[in-house]
From TrEMBL:
Name of the protein in its database record: Alanine racemase
Chain's gene name: alr
Record-linked HAMAP family: Ala_racemase
Gene Ontology cellular-component annotations: cytosol
Broad enzyme group: isomerase
Keyword ATP-binding: no
Catalysed reaction equations from the record: L-alanine = D-alanine
Family: Belongs to the alanine racemase family.
Function: Catalyzes the interconversion of L-alanine and D-alanine. May also act on other amino acids.
Residues recorded as bearing N6-(pyridoxal phosphate)lysine in the entry: 35
Key words of the record: Isomerase, Pyridoxal phosphate
Transmembrane regions listed in the UniProt entry: none
Family annotation (InterPro entries): Ala_racemase, Ala_racemase/Decarboxylase_C, Ala_racemase_C, Ala_racemase_N, Ala_racemase_pyridoxalP-BS, PLP-binding_barrel
Organism: Harenicola maris
Length: 349
């Protein structure tokens, strides 16, 4: 028996891609970020749905993740590696025809020595201080790098989900100054950057979370439903407790359902005693502590015992659940874990 059913709406993912693409003008192409197994939803299936919706350039974090994308899409679409060319990845980059986004002098040297004919892109640091060549480094090597025709020059915004943050405009200014007149396609915007407006779009955008229905793309369609199976139901008398630490005690006669998924399935333990799951729209409070493989809920208000209860879906978005846990939608999606039965609904094309 599986721990539950994770249903991914391919039509919603495709619609989100098209809605984000529609924010940019004709001179901007919209790529798709499918790292971390497609934000936990299945990299191959996400890549295929997004390719059907029109994406031709895909981004993964590390070379290994490129394999699933190539398998799903075949040759043709470009697959970029955000982590660049790591030592030990040379064969994979070559054999799978991946495009590493080189981020340091060390990586440039490694790539040009090992794979002088293999395509590459350049990653610049414009203020996030996470990855990329510093402006001074770029100034020193641009003359050598540009004639080799990088496929892309990109950088990443640190504060794009806060539109008023002054660092957005500062990074934009720096990126412009570093890339002006190079004639190479440029990319600065992820989901948040797309929403900042056309100044940030350049020749290619690279949304991730918005494709899968998450903030900061408030206009996104929900793409994920998570139904959890009820393993057992029981009646509690006043004063009886539920779960580890006996943290919840019945104040009235109550009926408790035990569901077959827990923190090992990405239902964060910080959800203990907070929030709800839903029975056809009726909220049932989560009570007691979330355990590794189980979760307990108060179903006293229901007329009959349910077979499954919904944690994510039309009644509760990924970001609403994230708020309850003190985190972000990205972490909820990428924590979901391998035990769910994946179901793909709807059509991307
Ligand atoms: C993860 C990532 C993206 C996608 O970001 P979202 O906020 O999910 O749209 C784009 N670019 C880089 C460099 C990333 O690391």
């Amino acid at each position: 028996m599986s721990t539950g059913t994770l249903t991914i709406d391919l039509a919603a993912v495709a619609a989100n891609y098209k809605a984000l693409a529609a924010q940019s003008g004709a001179g901007t192409e919209t790529g798709a970020v499918v790292k971390a197994d497609g934000y936990g939803l299945g990299a191959g299936r996400m890549a295929r749905a997004l390719a059907q919706a029109g994406a031709r350039r895909f981004f993964v974090a590390v070379a290994e993740e490129g394999a699933a994308i190539r398998e799903a899409l075949g040759r043709g679409p470009e697959v970029y590696i955000l982590g660049g060319h790591m030592s030990g990845d040379t064969d994979m980059i070559h054999d799978l025809d991946l495009v590493p986004l080189l981020n340091s002098i060390e990586q440039l040297t490694r790539h040009f020595e090992a794979l002088p004919k293999n395509p590459f892109g350049i990653q610049l640091d414009t203020g996030m201080n996470r990855l990329g060549l510093e402006p001074a480094e770029w100034a020193a090597v641009a003359e050598i790098v540009l004639p080799k025709k990088p496929r892309l020059i990109m950088s990443h915004l640190a504060c794009a989900d806060t539109p008023d943050h002054p660092q957005n405009a500062e990074q934009l200014e720096t990126f412009r100054a570093l890339t002006q007149g190079t004639g190479i396609p440029r990319s600065l915007a992820a989901t948040g950057g797309i929403l900042l407006g056309s100044d940030y779009h350049f020749e290619l955008t690279r949304p991730g979370i918005g494709l899968y229905g998450g903030l900061p793309f408030a206009g996104a369609q929900n793409a994920v439903t998570l139904d959890l199976p009820v393993i057992q139901c029981r009646d509690l008398e006043v004063g009886e407790s539920v779960g580890y630490g006996a943290s919840w005690v019945a104040e009235k006669p109550s009926r408790i359902a035990t569901l077959g998924a827990g923190y090992a399935d990405g239902i964060l333990r910080s959800l203990s005693g907070k929030g709800h799951v839903f029975a056809e729209g009726v909220p049932c409070p989560i009570v007691g502590r979330v355990s590794m493989d189980m979760l307990t809920v108060d179903i006293t208000g229901l007329r009959r015992d349910p077979k499954t209860l919904e944690l994510l879906g039309p009644d509760q978005s990924v970001d609403q659940l994230a708020d309850l846990c003190g985190t972000i939608g990205y972490e909820i999606l990428t924590s979901l874990g391998p035990r769910y039965n994946l179901r793909y609904a709807g059509r991307a094309g």
